[in-house]
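Section 3.1: Structural characterization of target chains.
Under the original work plan, the team committed to producing a structural model for every single-chain target entering the pipeline before any wet-lab resources were allocated. The record below documents one such target. The sequence was received from the expression subgroup and is listed exactly as submitted; it comprises 340 residues.
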Amino acid sequence: MSELLRRLVSHITQRADPRIHVVTSSNIADEEPTTTLAPASPQIASAEIVEPSGKINGVPVGEPTPSRFSYFIDGIERRRVVMYYAGVPVLYGFAASACRHRDRRERRMQTHGEPVIREALFCPKRLVGFCSEGIDVIDVEENGTVFEDHPVVLLEAAKHKVSDVRARLEAQVISSWLADFEGTDEWLLVDGSLSGDYHLYNAPNVVGVVKSHQTQYFPIEEQRKILELRVGERSGLFVPKGRKRHEVYSWYLRLWSHHGQDAYFGLVRIEAPKCERTLAMVDQICQWLLAERTPLSLPDSRWDRMLYPIRDCEQFLASLAPSKVMLDSAMMRLVAADRR
């Protein structure tokens, strides 16, 4: 059992508060442990095409070449409803991020630095009069935001707050790597959009691979050209608009043939710093990514978009997180404490 949940058992045992209702499962939403972010809502955004041709059409990138990526960053989250306090859901959340290094001499992956981890309870503090020394509680209504007093709305807000914490941890690890390797020949591959302090550096060696396609940046006529990309083809470069972070150059790349598959099979979106070097290296970066397709990330169901070093990072972080069995055990102890 985690230290936070152990303290929570002690707290419930001592208080015997009738407003606390411990649950071992939730009928409101599936709260099984997860290593992926909660699916974002589909949305339409805009982009500025910066490809010299002025078009989004497919561009062959050439044959795969040995990858220069040697560092990889990913993050995970796990969440579970642990109780209701006076009818308000309280979510347990675990988030972590780490950097893994591919040691070419020893032919194995190693952890670079220390992983960053945070576990806490997530709830609206204005509705949950719950506090105890040693129990980290994160308010889902930070910065003046107030949600409707509806359990489902409050639970969704808590889940998104866990994802926000995960994103902040990933940005922290990326910033640390950038500070360590500024001015070197090392390259970093990040799972997801670029974050951290990459904008503070001149042409940093960092690239992000986005596996999901919830945001569509182009009208359907242009989007069709992206979906028709062949293996080893990239789209024209563009600058996504409306980002909360600093601007990046972005493009799509087809890693695997989608013949007989979903239109998005093997399709990823790449992000790189908005600088002249990215414009000069875009095809070379694609060649490195094509080389990263082996070994396959099986048995992961996302193997067509999940590069193996990223999966290794995810698996390493999963080994640090509480398992479903551990969380089930913790829930039973909480129920026992609540009955005293």
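DSSP finds six helices and 15 strands in the chain.
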